[in-house]
Amino acid sequence: MTLAINTPAPDFELADQNGTLHRLSDYLGKRVVLYFYPKDDTPGCTTEACNFRDNYAVFEQNDIVILGVSADSEKSHAKFRDKYQLPFTLLSDADHTVCELYGVWGLKKFMGREYYGINRTTFLIDEAGKLVKIYKKVKPASHAQEIIEDFV
Description:
Layout: E1 13-16, E2 21-23, E3 31-36, H1 43-54, H2 56-61, E4 64-70, H3 74-84, E5 89-92, H4 97-101, E6 105-110, E7 113-118, E8 121-125, E9 131-135, H5 143-151
Parallel strand pairs: 3-4, 4-5
Antiparallel strand pairs: 1-2, 1-5, 3-8, 6-7, 8-9
């Protein structure tokens, strides 16, 4: 499935780091940064999450919700969130159903090895639940600032 700008973001339901279920449709009326990342507590993903954390006040002041999604477990998310004092919600997509729905689950290569995993991608969703921007080539260290420039 290929997602397009100005179309509704596919709704889903996933559990957060505490086991609480979240539906994307619960956030209608708010702007949402939905970011998919490969793995908790790895260098690039930690950099990206901490970049969101360090800029969180700007998102909060502008009533923008940040939702991070990976295939890690709720327990892994809780540890990651606590370790880096992340102030936003992390959602567990252990069976990668939502990742596939958003087209971010795919073949990757690392050191000559091929495997399936999450391609780091971010979706900006407006108050009406429509996709307004998709970032496919994310630079973890500057991504939050890029979103602030585009969305605030």
